[in-house]
TrEMBL record:
Family: Belongs to the small heat shock protein (HSP20) family.
KW Transcription regulation (keyword) present: no
UniProt-recorded name of the protein: SHSP domain-containing protein
Pfam families for the chain: HSP20
Organism in which the protein naturally occurs: Gossypium anomalum
Record flagged with keyword Nucleus: no
Compartments, record wording: Cell membrane
Membrane topology: Single-pass membrane protein
InterPro entries recorded: A-crystallin/Hsp20_dom (IPR002068), HSP20-like_chaperone (IPR008978)
Upper lineage: Eukaryota, Viridiplantae, Streptophyta, Embryophyta, Tracheophyta
Alphabetized UniProt keyword annotations: Cell membrane, Membrane, Plant defense, Transmembrane, Transmembrane helix
Chain ranges of the SHSP domain: 3-109, 187-298
Regions of compositional bias (Low complexity) in chain numbering: 99-110
GO biological process, one term: defense response
A Gene Ontology term for the protein's cellular component: plasma membrane
């Protein structure tokens, strides 16, 4: 399929500087992927572009420019912004040629002489740009330098990564505030009650049943103090409003005689009933053995029975915060590596 082309001559400006030169091409309606910048082995910088037009036509242009001899070919880069293609040509550290110095002096004249010197400046630009304007571009020896156009993509990735990290941190802080701020500001009232307790006596052990309907295992606590007191306590949330929360709680104490094996006392909770099993001491023939057993029972110290967790919700909140912080760290590490590449 044949295409008809319309050749155009885009406006461009060549700005000379001490460390680098900048060429500005007016390429309105051209996209980044429709432009091409090449620097051949013969030292010719070729700028070309091609885009579709109405009626199946295509608009194209091509411009050959001779950059200064002291330029750095491998450092040339381009950037498209607001319909203007900026091509930066860095220079080496060597001093500028006399021709560039004279051109710079003409450009630095006052306003009264600026128009007179402008014609010579344009002639110098035209002399530099026109010799190879219609020359054919070598296809096998050309080398593309469009790395500057890729800088916009990297910058966009960095911006997206920063916005995502800030948003995730904000969500985590909002979640923490939502959980802990209402708890700190609400008024808490307690309702004490007396649970039903039943003893079941046996020859080898005694069993205590405490009826605690509505309680969970994590809300109960069982302790045996060194003074020989068995303490059972618990708290649970009954009602929570916008400004007030009501907590139901209880506390029971039972004396534990020396006839029980305190270190073997254990508890189980199921079907809303707390079952405490209290094994009794096994009588022995030797009196010395009895004295040793009594000594061991009396020196058992503080309770070793803490088999019930106190707060399940607190553990769940800590787990959620830890997972959120881990996601933030992984996200920052991933996009920092992308930006460095």
């Amino acid at each position: 399929m044949s295409h008809s082309y319309q050749d155009v001559e885009p406006e461009f400006q060549y700005h000379k500087g001490e460390t680098h030169d900048i060429i500005e091409f007016q390429v309105k309606d051209f996209r980044k992927d429709q432009l091409r910048v090449h620097f051949s082995s013969k030292g010719v910088l070729t700028v070309s572009g091609e885009r579709p037009h109405e009626g199946g036509k295509k608009i194209r242009f091509r411009k050959d420019i001779n950059p200064p001899k002291d330029c750095e070919p491998n450092e040339i880069h381009a950037k498209l912004r607001s319909g203007v293609l900026f091509i930066t040509i860095p220079k080496k550290d060597a001093p500028q040629p006399p021709q560039q110095d004279s051109l710079k002096q003409v450009q630095q004249q006052d306003n009264g002489k600026l128009k007179q010197g402008g014609s010579s400046s344009e002639e110098a630009k035209g002399a530099m740009a026109t010799p190879n304007e219609n020359a054919a571009m070598p296809k096998t020896e050309s080398k593309s330098f469009i790395s500057g156009l890729e800088m916009e993509k990297k910058t966009a990735i960095k911006v997206v990564a920063n916005v995502a990290v800030v948003s995730l941190v904000f969500v985590v802080l909002f979640y923490v505030y939502k959980i802990y701020a209402p708890v700190a500001s609400k008024e808490t009232s307690y309702e004490d009650f007396e649970p039903l307790c039943k003893w079941r006596r046996d020859q080898n052990c005694d069993k205590l049943e405490v009826h605690l309907q509505g309680f969970k295992r994590q809300q109960l606590k069982v302790q045996i103090h060194s003074s020989g007191i068995l303490e059972i306590s618990g708290e649970r949330l009954m009602e929570e409003g916008k400004s007030k929360r009501i907590i139901s709680r209880f506390r029971k104490e039972f004396p534990v005689s020396e006839d029980y094996q305190r270190t073997q006392i254990h508890a189980k909770f199921y079907n809303g009933i707390l079952h405490l099993v209290m094994p009794k001491q096994i009588p022995t023939i030797s009196a010395a053995g009895d004295e040793n057993n009594d000594g061991k029972a009396s020196s058992s110290g503080t309770s070793c029975l803490t088999c019930l967790m106190k707060n399940k919700n607190m553990a769940l909140e800590i787990m959620i915060l830890a997972i959120s912080l881990a996601i933030v760290g992984a996200y920052v590490k991933k996009y920092c590596q992308c930006s460095l590449q």
